[in-house]
Amino acid sequence: MDTLQNAPTSNKFINYRPIAEIAVGLMLGIAVCGIMPAGGAAVLCIMTACGAAGVVFALLRHTRSALFAASVLIGILFAALRLPTELPNGNYTVSGIVLSAEYSDGETELILTKSELHLSASAGIFRREGRVKIITEGYLNIDVGDGVYIPKVYLRGAAKADSSERSRFLKQLSEGITASGRLYGGGSNDDGSTAVDEISVVSKHNLPVREALTSVRSSIVRHIGRIFGTDAGIVSALIVGDKTALQSDRTEAYRATGTAHLLAISGFHTGIIAAILGLFVPKRKRWLRTAFVGIGLIMYCCIAVYAAGIVRASIMVICALLCRALNRRADSLNGLAAAAVLILAFEPFQLYSVGFQLSFAACFGLILFSKQFETALASAHIPLAGSVSACLGASIATAPFQAAYFGCLPLYFVAGNLIAVPLFSLVMVLCIAILIIGIPFPGFAAVLAVAPRAVLFVVERCLGFLSALPYASLDLPTIPLASCALFLAMLFVLSPYVLRPFQKKAGLAVFCLLLFTCSLVFSIITL
Q1: pLDDT tens for residues 99-115?
Q2: Are residues 152 and 285 in the same domain?
Q3: How many Cβ atoms sit within 10 Å of the Cβ of residue 202?
Q4: Which residues of 105-131 are buried (b: 16+ CB within 10 A; e: fewer)?
Q5: Is 102 inside any structural domain?
């Protein structure tokens, strides 16, 4: 973490970072738009007019206040512009192009783009800029780029007016999905796929670039399957983010020990890829190194078919490399804020993505406290102080989000991550090297694969032992997202970024804690 000038006698309240203020303002504006009722055009116009007046007034009095007000206003506008037109629930005739087709747990999930929806009870046609998700039982022999026609399917749209539907609506929007429905299969075709009379392929090869990327990814997955055998599901998730072959019984120990993030392609994997790429270019050639690593990460994002976690992490890595190339101090908080601004500017409703919230909360906790924890642990002569402090910082910040989405908190997360993270780093490096060797020598690569598979075996045995211990996880009440934001605000107040004496910081932290507690009590009462 960056060295901060934590001077209690300073007149400044915080160690100011404009890009961080813009990121917070954008998030607040998007959150306001997210809770706005359907048909809130009049409310939006009033808020826009008031916001513009507030920005003008703030510019005359205080530039920083104006920047924050403008960021909130822009966040509201960005989110409002990306809101889909309201789609009533009902039976639709659907046509569109398959963007992805994933088979898992006995079901096929189709994501359609460039869709046209015709409501059976109306003569109107809805053209959707977003995506339509169709789930059907069994395996469908449908490929990416196929044009499909469905004469009748019941779709659920963006029913924002109903508060009980709001979380489903926002989760759909975070995935770019504006409507979803389900089809039920009949018999079986000659090729073993499920026969669904209500869906037919009307054209092929409509998305050549996406088809090529999906084909490359599928080839890598098949290559992994030939080399790694029964461990192919874990390796595919590690390398390209393909989870279709992951077995639920194998992933249970990861979830119980707080190490499931290792199976979701994200910053951990991106950092390893960036470190490997950086080995090929000397550090003194900053621009060449930045360009080489940046292009490599962009290619990795393409192979992973633009997985949201790796796109977020790649932006952060590229921001840090650009800072170094420009001889600027690589500020961790600025890098995190810049990544958030870039992502939310293009996809505002990523704010409601579970992956976005967990990854940014983890990075936020690392930035705020990992250095302080490491200093304290090192002074106490505790071994592996750096690794323990990183686990603590990330786990503390993500704890309320764990409760919000999973209803529990793994209590042995430090031990689990201390075992799994370094060994998974080794596994990933070995797997990449073996896959490259396996291109000309697949048989030899299968023999070499015994090493990472043995490491995986040891890791899973250790995690299984931890998950079987008493009190492996603590059940927690569901926490609203507003409470999670208050918790992060409390952590920020306690961090070195707030330049106040400890007594005043403690008072502010207690105030945030009281608000956090009140919000929890209110959410429990209103359940």
Answers
A1: 888 877 778 888 898 78
A2: no
A3: 9
A4: eebbbbbbbbbbbebeeeeeebebebb
A5: yes
Element (H, E) at 322: helix 308-325
- Whether residues 178 and 286 share a domain: the answer is no
What is the DSSP pairing of strand 147-156 with strand 90-104?
A: antiparallel
CB atoms inside a 10 Å sphere around CB 479: 23
Number of domains in the chain: 2
pTM of the model: 0.82
Task: Report the percentage of the chain scoring pLDDT > 90.
Answer: 9
| Other CB atoms within 10 Å distance of the CB of residue 278 | 17
| pLDDT for residue 175 | 81
How confident is the model at residue 172, as a pLDDT?
Answer: 81
What residue type is assigned to position 314 of the chain? S
> Which residues touch 291 (CB under 8 Å, ≥6 apart)?
none
Spatial distance between the Cα atoms of 346 and 1, rounded to a whole number of angstroms:
28
- Does 234 share its domain with 189? no
- For the segment 287-325, what is each residue's pLDDT rounded down to a tens digit? 898 899 999 988 888 887 666 667 777 887 887 788 777
What does the block give as tokens for 241?
């983010």
For the chain, helix (H) and strand (E) counts, in that order, are 18, 9
Distance CA 366, CA 349 (A): 24
As to burial, measured by CB atoms within 10 angstroms (0-12 exposed, 13-18 middle, 19+ buried), residue 228 is buried
Residue 27, classed as helix, strand or coil, is helix
Are 105 and 229 contained in the same domain?
no
Residue 110 counted as domain residue: yes
Range of the domain at 296: 218-352+407-475
For the chain, state the CA radius of gyration.
Answer: 25
Rounded to whole angstroms, how far apart are CA atoms 194 and 186? 7
Positive or negative, the CA dihedral 401, 350, 51, 158 is negative
**Residue 234, in any domain of the structure:** yes
Report the chain's mean pLDDT, rounded to a whole number.
80
Phi, psi of 26 (to 5 degrees): -60, -45
Report the alpha-carbon distance of residue 507 to residue 497 in Å, rounded.
16
181/279 same-domain check: no
| Residue segments in the chain with a per-residue pLDDT below the cut of 70 | 1-13, 15, 36-62, 120-129, 157-165, 185-198, 305-309, 329-330, 526-527
pLDDT at 432: 92
pLDDT at residue number 282: 87
In a domain, 111, yes or no: yes
Do 465 and 324 lie in one domain? The reply is yes
Give residue-wise pLDDT tens across range 313-370.
788 788 778 877 777 766 778 878 888 898 898 889 889 888 888 888 888 888 888 8
Last residue of a domain, which of 206, 228, 253? 206
Phi, psi angles (nearest 5°) of residue 131: -110, 155
Q: What is the pLDDT of residue 87?
A: 75
φ, ψ of residue 183 in degrees (nearest 5):
-115, 155
Question: Do 324 and 457 belong to one domain?
Answer: yes
Distance, in Å, from the CA atom of 240 to the CA atom of 217, rounded to the nearest integer, reads 7
Report helix, strand or coil for 519: helix
Same-domain check for residues 284 and 422: yes
Q: What CATH number does the domain containing 176 carry?
A: 2.40.50.140
